[in-house]
Amino acid sequence: MNNILILGGSGFIGRHVCEALERAGLHSTVPTRRLPAHSVQMLPRVSVVQADVHNPGVLAELVRGHDAVVNLVAILHGNAQQFDHVHVQLPRLLAQACVDQGVNRLVHMSALGAHVQGPSMYLRSKGQGDALLQSMAQQHGLQLTLMQPSVVFGADDKFINVFAQLQAFTPVVPLAGAQAKFQPVWVQDLAQALVHALAMPQSHGQRYELVGPEVLTLAQLVQHAGRWSGHPRTIWPLPPTLAQAQAWLMEHLPGPTLMSRDNLASMQVDNVASGSAPGLPALNIPLPTRLDRVFPLV
Predict the structure, then answer these.
(1) Of 179, 273, 269, which is closest to residue 218 (Cα–Cα)?
(2) How far is the CA of 111 from the CAs of 42, 100, 126, 152, 169, in angstroms?
(3) Residue 147: beta bridge partners?
(4) Residue pLDDT, tens place only, 236-259
(5) Count of CB atoms within 10 A of residue 275's CB?
(6) Torsion, Cα of 94, 100, 101, 103 (10° steps)
(7) How far is residue 177's CA from residue 264's CA, in Å, rounded to a whole number?
(8) Which of 87, 154, 195, 204 would be a feasible disulfide site paired with 125, CB 3.0-4.6 Å?
(9) Rounded to whole angstroms, how far apart are CA atoms 224 and 297?
């Protein structure tokens, strides 16, 4: 298995997956809507091509000739139609392209807590995409692996870093969902686990819950970000009504959305491993990395 197609390869997780594949000596193709994709195109074994992966004909051409396909495409914010387009319809098109082009190996990045009856559009659409892929894999003999991470952190993330930057400019942090629980996983552990999964026949047909060694509340994660950046601030947990108001306001502010009402709905379910599926140790990551190894506290 030498040639891997990576959808979403120019994103945060994708960049680290491409680097992990590069270290393993594997070649990868990364389609992107806009060139250049500076983050990955400097890697010698990565080919970056401009393409719309939502176009069935284009997708079929992309899949052809590869040994495996990895799907990392996802959105955190949107309406029901947008979530369906990215999390359900794209996986359906991708699985069909794999069947049509004779590419049997598919690794799909889902999310911890994904369920067709989840509390948010995000989790429901992720669950629907997973169920669809599992059904198509069973019907057509696809070697499918589902990976379900908790929140992913890394030195170049837009999670810990964003909370750190916010605390540099505010004396307190009014926080919606402060008590929501997460089990954050390091992006490089996740990327290396994915590379191992590609090489492991025992991962075919498996679902993995990919989490780190610590369960932390959102408030604890925000506090860690502030202490790491040298701007520790007081956290003000918001009651549900004010939390909804804050999320609504953030949805309508200019620039990237930091929090939405759908995010709040997702946090009704603790984002921690259920124990119903194997985790990182089953993918040759025996000691997952703690948050303070990447964001050390002084």
Answers:
(1) 179
(2) 29, 27, 7, 10, 32
(3) 109, 208
(4) 999 999 999 999 999 988 877 889
(5) 8
(6) 60
(7) 6
(8) 87
(9) 8
Query: How far apart are alpha carbons 34 and 37 in whole angstroms?
Result: 7
pTM above 0.90, yes or no: yes
Confidence class of residue 111 from pLDDT cuts 50, 70 and 90?
very high
Phi and psi, residue 222, nearest 5°? -65, -40
Q: How confident is the model at residue 98 (pLDDT cuts 50, 70, 90)?
A: very high
**Dist CA 36 CA 112 (whole Å):** 32
Residue burial 201-210, b: 16+ Cβ < 10 Å; e: rest: eebeebbbbb
Q: What is the mean pLDDT of residues 120-132?
A: 98
Which residue has tokens 């392209």?
97
* Fold of the domain spanning 3-151+185-210+273-285: Rossmann fold (3.40.50)
For the segment 183-200, the average pLDDT, to the nearest whole number, is 97
Segments making up each domain of the chain, as ranges: 3-151+185-210+273-285
Whether cis (ω within 30° of 0) applies to the bond prior to 56 is no
Q: What is the pLDDT of residue 36?
A: 62
Whether 55 has a pLDDT exceeding 90, the answer reads yes
* pLDDT given for residue 40 in this prediction: 79
Is the pLDDT at 190 greater than 70? The verdict is yes
Task: Return d(Cα 196, Cα 190) in angstroms, integer.
Answer: 10
Taking the C-alpha atoms of residue 37 and residue 49, their distance in angstroms, rounded to an integer, is: 9
